[in-house]
Amino acid sequence: MADNKIITWKQQAIVKAAKYCAYQERTQQEVRDKLYSYGLYTDAVEEVLSELISDGFVNEERFAQAFARGKFRSNKWGRIKIEMGLRQKGISAYCIRRGLQEFSEADYIDTLTSLIQKKWNSLEGEDTYTRKHKTARFVLGKGYESERIWKILGDYEDYSTRCSLSRNGTT
Prior knowledge:
Layout: H1 2-23, H2 28-37, H3 42-54, H4 60-75, H5 79-88, H6 93-100, H7 105-122, H8 128-141, H9 146-167
Helix pairs in contact: 1-3, 2-3, 4-5, 4-6, 5-6, 7-8, 7-9, 8-9
């Protein structure tokens, strides 16, 4: 009779956790925490989690890919910020690398350039030095690499200097 009750709780936990995982991609730790919140103990949690993994409900590589894709497309995050977000969630280095392959280099540069251009244009009226540093801080905070940022900003500074010279009538 006691075995029957344990099986019932396990089956209920699997069904509830499967619904939880079907809603959106989850990490193993998120599912583990949810199972503990159901009142399950360590052995039962690990059994249920193992079954969810084998049934394909929990897949950290798939989670990393969805996370990276979503943060890049929706929030315009750079690789550094995405990687840190995945590390905070306890994702392995392999899965992080797979997740960061979700967007092309061309899309990445286009997004970075677009962010820089929007920020640069929003700072019109500021001197070039201030525009450059405020823009750099903004995209650094989004998680982009400083070398790429400064290269693009160097192009903007050159462009800005040419524009101001042509407005003053000097070439």
